[in-house]
Amino acid sequence: MIRRPPRSTLFPYTTLFRSQITTYYYVGFDYLMMRRYADAIRTFSNILLYIQRTEQMFQYRTFQCDQINKQTDQMYTLLAICLLLHPQRIDESVYSKLSEKHNNKIMRLQRLEEAEFQNSFCYACPKFLSPVPPDYDAPALDYHMDPLTLQLQVFMDEVRQQIILPTIRSYLKLYTTMPITKLAAFLDMKEDAFRTCLLCFKHKMKNIVWTKGTSGLEGEFQSGSEVDFYINKDMIHIADTKVARRYGDYFIRQIHKFEELNASLKALPV
Q1: Which of 69, 147, 180, 260 sees the fewest Cβ atoms within 10 Å?
Q2: pLDDT band at 183, cuts 50/70/90?
Q3: For residue 58, what pLDDT is reported?
Q4: Where does residue 108 fall: left (phi above 0), alpha (psi -120 to 50 degrees), or beta otherwise?
Q5: Percentage with pLDDT > 70 across the chain
Q6: The model's pTM
Q7: Cα 165–238–195 angle (5° rounding)?
Q8: Could you give the CA distance from residue 104 to residue 214 in angstroms, rounded to a whole number?
Q9: How far is CA 159 from CA 62, 113, 155, in A?
Q10: Across 105-120, average pLDDT
Q11: How far is CA 79 from CA 42, 97, 130, 146, 253, in A?
């Protein structure tokens, strides 16, 4: 259960940098497997932004550096998966770092290659333990792989259910009204099957999102899609719910970076 611990027990998790990263990593992965992608994206984005701002604090601690770098890379991979399954805007600096480090992987995920989903999940997921002991009387097999195989199967079932949704989303962004038969023809699908995919789109884009409370399991159903639609007889009516981009924050961050760079240059001995 994802529940906020008492304040008196938070000291080791908030002061030890390594434990703080690990806690966010496991919480974010739990949200991913629960199909709460918005909460997973928020969790990964917060800790990755914190790592970017405090990376100078641990770059000289060699006994932790390798583990922190590996877990950070795993969280970037999980974040890329979440953003493909549930697109939404994240912090500019985190997105730039994600694109820089995993551009090829993101392109393969966008092409909906199942092998890339499997490889990314196996690389980024934690180690799983079986809750029951193996059958020692049975022939020797790789029982230690059973928990990973089970979790991978659950994840890939979810991916296969959503494999057509990015294509449908791209078409919906282009129109305001469109006949169901015409859009089904674009996708080479039968009309009944396409109606099922539209209902799947509605269902998958509506997640439980944490808003307030002490338990991470609390939340409210919210739609995270940039496009919304309804069907009236045989016509799809589409509305763009995307919020206009705020450029002010970006320019403010760039101005602060320039001022810091200018101050550091002035401090250098001539």
Answers
A1: 260
A2: confident
A3: 61
A4: alpha
A5: 86
A6: 0.75
A7: 50
A8: 39
A9: 38, 10, 6
A10: 89
A11: 9, 12, 26, 25, 23
